[in-house]
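Something for you to look into today, if you have time. I want to see for myself how the chain folds. Leave the record below and I will have a look.
***
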Amino acid sequence: MTRKNSGTCSRSVSFNIDDNKIITGVSFEGGCNGNLKGIAALCEGQNAEDIIRRCKGIRCGFKSTSCPDQLALALEEALEKLQTARV
């Protein structure tokens, strides 16, 4: 899945999520290269719900969002799509 980010230096976030809600292949386009590679590495193989719980609501300086927050929003959308596909 790829989702455009809003309100951050990074332009988008991409990742794969399987039926067990495990995240792989996280990558960001733009933004702080080293920090975003670190976030991606920490998310690899983790449960999407755990990452959402940890990252949702994080702010970057004066901004109302952050790259981790945008990742959490994208993961929520992906989980909704998984749920809809199962119905």
In short: The beta strands are 2-4, 10-17, 23-30. The chain has one domain: 2-86. Helices lie at 33-43, 48-55, 67-86. The CA atoms of residues 52 and 72 lie 5 Å apart.
